[in-house]
Amino acid sequence: MLYLLDTANLEAIKHCNEYYPLSGVTTNPSIISAENTDFWELVTGIRKIIGDEKMLHVQTTQKTAAAIVKEAKLLKERIGGNFYVKIPIGEEGIKATMELKKLGIGVTVTAIFTPAQALIAAKAGADFVAPYVNRLDNIIGDGCDVAAEIVSQLKIFGYDCKVLVASFKNAEQVHKCASVGCHSVTVSAGILKTVISHPMTDAAIQGFDRDWAAIYGDKTIMEL
Fold first, then answer.
1. Contact in structure between 27 and 59 (CB atoms under 8 Å)
2. Residues designated as active site
3. What is the spatial distance between Cα 117 and Cα 111, in angstroms, rounded to a whole number?
4. Region 17-22 average pLDDT
5. Which residues of 132-165 are buried (b: 16+ CB within 10 A; e: fewer)?
6. Residue 140 confidence class, pLDDT cut points 50, 70, 90
7. Exposed, middle or buried, 179 (CB in 10 Å: 0-12/13-18/19+)?
């Protein structure tokens, strides 16, 4: 399982990159715009924090295949490192994906809502496909079931494309996607923290502290 952070907030990225086994960071135009700052300073700032080996996914703003390819090349050149351009599913996006595959530039096809969309994106050469779980749940769909079907179809046809599940509102959705074999998830800092949290864990730690203090007081092992 690959865990990615879905934000462009530099402080959140610094914190999570230090405390969690992140494989990278994902962004989109909404996430970037929320920071309300210079675009290039922001994305290169993210790269400086996570280093060259971890993935950085940045979405194109272009609408035609030719422009998407041109922008992807610029992004790759300016950002460097382990880079993937995010491209929304559509005719122009599929065409651009096929061209970028020939150029060796990583592609994540995003805004996926059906297994059929994911399958054709994989056939076009996408390295990742990003289904939106919570947005499907919000329209009385089942985002985790859709993600599971995508995983199954990619395996059936032998595509090396990975499922990068996005749009989470709670840790249970993350758990369910992991249970059906999704290869990667991209989550907020808040959900990432929730994933490792549990009230019984808190109670256990309090018990350890209480029992230790009963015998050794406030001294640590290094102080004994």
1. yes
2. 86
3. 9
4. 98
5. bbeebbeeeeebbebbbbbbeebeeeebebbbbb
6. confident
7. exposed
